[in-house]
Design brief:
The chain is α+β, with helices and mostly antiparallel strands. Helix content is about 30%, strand content about 10%.
Length: about 475
């Protein structure tokens, strides 16, 4: 029995985009990766289906958790064929495991009889929904973040009133909306709990008695809350930590022996690429990672219980909470190779990028600020131009921005004040090295009063001292939490 009731009118699966014959080469590759040999009218075992769904999702840069949950909801149990060996075709003409409703541009017989083709079609539709410019965007749109796909998931089924995130008449959350059910499957079967995004009734307009699509009033959302990244992107030698108490097993299955009990927050090193469930007929929405503990012992942990960790940020480091708060909020990233860049200075250019993200500022079509050291081919030109145009930054001189110079504590105070607009202070600061009436005096006073920053000593602020990446993470994290 189908898990969801599908929206018939205006179904977003009525997608006109074709697979453009990418079909057979990629299908062959996915089948090969999953050691899958099709048998007419026969569903693959669950572990193989997990592999097919995962590999098709990764090939299109879509979080596998979402594709697996949609397949679960659409076909009821990851099925292409019914108990008689016939292709599943529902009363509204939804076909197969991904329930492709509109067949324009697709080979209908392959949609019915080729599960890999059907899965790839569904993933392509989902990807096209994500790229639609008439749907709201969330944050910077990092494709690895599950919550960023909220409206793409909705559109996969249809942007009809039945799928409004909020029940207009009551203001309650619409837990019966298609996308809410998909996210619930991720929670129930993927063992990952996506955030409930704080939408409002005023974000949407619709007539519940009409077949017309929802009108999206808010088109650009910016949520400064920790979000959920896919658990299928960890690489060999990455460091991860456990999100809950769990078990280290001898193999990729709960049927294998327990080697050790792991505590929440234990740091592990990924030992290689993920693998699929060892028991063929067991349906897991997660995968298994081979990992190594600090004592050198090895084993397997389910991907659901792992979270990325920067290699250069020690456990219980004083800035750890703020670093990961910004990382999970998709505001602050690392410097590559699993490194955060602990102890490295924050440049003015990188500060401009962070402030644009914090304010959700578009960098498109900004006037040239005219800095001789930031020509239009400069790699950070767009971000610097946008930050200057928004009044968040000014140059060190009229024609110079000095993008590679380290941000100072005085500059940090002024920039954070411009972005977060702390209220007028009731008391003055105690710093003797902050000249009264200086260009940064008021900003320092307000940040000090809001307890965003203290001095380098009780009476010294250190206005010319350089800011490191972790120091700025703490200041910015405190600022967001204050607001």
């Amino acid at each position: 029995m189908k898990y969801f009731v599908k929206v018939v009118l205006g179904v977003a699966l009525a997608c006109i985009f074709a697979l453009v014959n990418q079909g057979e080469a990629s299908a062959e590759s996915i089948s090969s990766k999953c050691s899958y040999t099709p048998v007419n009218g026969e569903n693959p075992d669950m572990s193989t289906t997990n592999c097919l769904l995962t590999e098709a999702a990764l090939a299109k840069n879509v979080p596998p958790e979402i594709v697996k949950a949609i397949a679960e909801g659409e076909s009821g149990n990851w099925r292409q064929f019914d108990s008689n060996g016939d292709p599943i075709v529902t009363s509204d003409n939804g076909i197969g495991i991904m329930q492709i409703t509109n067949k324009s541009g697709y080979d209908e017989e392959k949609l019915k009889n080729d599960i890999v083709y059907n899965i790839e079609a569904g993933v392509k539709v989902l990807d096209e929904m994500y790229r639609r410019s008439d749907l709201p965007s969330i944050n910077a749109g990092d494709r690895d973040v599950l919550e960023h796909w909220y409206f793409a998931i909705m559109a996969y089924n249809g942007t009809k009133p039945v799928n409004s995130p909020i029940v207009q008449s009551t203001g309650d959350r619409n837990t019966d909306a298609y996308q809410e059910k998909v996210l619930k499957i991720i929670d129930d079967l993927g063992l990952i709990k996506p955030q409930t995004l704080p939408f409002k009734s005023s974000d949407f307009k619709y007539d519940s008695n009409s077949s017309k699509n929802i009108e999206f009033i808010t088109m650009d959302y910016h949520f400064t809350i920790p979000l959920t990244k896919t658990k299928h992107r960890f690489l060999k030698d990455d460091q991860v930590k456990t999100t809950t108490a769990t078990r280290l097993r001898t193999g990729p299955s709960t049927d294998t022996s327990i080697k050790a009990s792991l505590q929440e927050g234990e740091v592990l090193t990924v030992n290689g690429p993920f693998v699929y469930e060892k028991v063929a007929d067991r349906k897991n929405h997660y995968v298994w990672y081979p990992v190594k503990r600090s004592d050198g012992s090895t084993g397997y942990v389910a991907s659901s219980f792992l979270k990325f960790k920067f290699k250069d940020v020690p456990a219980n480091y004083w800035a750890e909470d703020h670093i990961y708060y910004l990382y999970d909020s998709t505001l602050l990233y690392g410097m590559g190779n699993g490194q955060f860049g602990l102890g490295k200075n924050l440049t003015r250019a990188h500060a401009a990028i962070l402030m644009n993200r914090a304010k959700n500022i578009s960098t498109e079509n900004r006037p040239d600020p005219g800095f001789t050291d930031v020509p239009k081919d400069h790699k950070y030109y767009d971000d610097i131009a946008a930050a200057v145009d928004e009044g968040l930054f000014v140059g060190v001189k009229e024609t110079k921005f000095d993008p590679d110079a380290t941000l100072t504590r005085a500059q940090m105070a002024v920039v954070l004040q411009r972005v977060y607009e702390f209220p007028k202070a009731s008391n003055d600061h105690p710093f003797t090295d902050v000249k009264n009436g200086s260009w940064y005096d008021e900003a320092v006073t307000r940040l000090y009063d809001a307890e965003i920053t203290a001095g380098v000593t009780k009476t010294k602020f250190g206005p010319d001292d350089k800011i490191t990446r972790e120091q700025f993470a703490v200041f910015m994290g405190r600022s967001i939490q204050y607001k």
